[in-house]
Structures are given as structure tokens and as C-alpha cells.
Amino acid sequence: QLQVAESGGGLVQPGGSLRLSCAASGVALEDYTIGWFRQAPGKEREGVSCISGRDGSTYYADSVKGRFTISRDNAKNAVYLQMNSLKPEDTGIYYCAGEVWITTVQTMCVTAQALFGSWGQGTQVTVSS
User: Fold this and answer.
1) Per-10-residue mean pLDDT, the chain, length 129
2) What whole-number distance in Å separates Cα of residue 18 and Cα of residue 20?
């Protein structure tokens, strides 16, 4: 059974950078799609970025394109989210989630979040001066 745990959140100034980690256990990432989701105060949870463990295909929300980079390290069974040029609107709780590959990463990230069966506790990211 897949289990994921995220870490790396914290307080950073606008324009700063932060790197989130998602450690998977129980199974090998090669068979899974891993996604990063966030929920800002008063807003619904949104898909930030997802990556396929099969072929490395990625998806980025328009709001983070060019600033965030998702990557994987199958040897360490981990997925990372490098966040650069952070903005106050990036503030929120970031969650890592995983599921056996079902469909495209875009579909899973945007229209089928319910497909993800394993979720971490979340890590707080606060972007503020």
C-alpha cells in the first residue's frame, strides 16, 4: 500500500525559493502518478503539479508555470517540487498524493483529483514579507 509524506514547507519572503519533498513508501514510484496539491485559506484545493512515475510526464498549473519544477528520484522513491519566485498567493497547505497510473497527469491533476487514493498530511508554505 502506497504511503506518502511531504516535508520542506516553511516561511519565505516573496521572490524566494522553497523545495518540497514527497517521500513514498510501501511501493515503487515507477508505477504511480504523484501530484502536488495546495489549499489556500478560504479556497478550494487545486492541483499544482503532477508527474508520472512511468515516463516522467508532467503537468503544471498555469499559475506556477515557469516558477515551479517537479522532479522525481526513483532511486530514493521521492518526488520534489522546486518552487522559485514565490508569491504571497502561493501561500497554503501543500499536499502530496499518489495513485497507480490511471490516466494522463493533466487529467488526474485537474479534473480527477478523486482518483488519488494516498495523501500526506500536508506541509505549510507561507510567502510573506
Assistant:
1) 96 98 92 95 95 92 98 93 98 97 91 92 97
2) 7
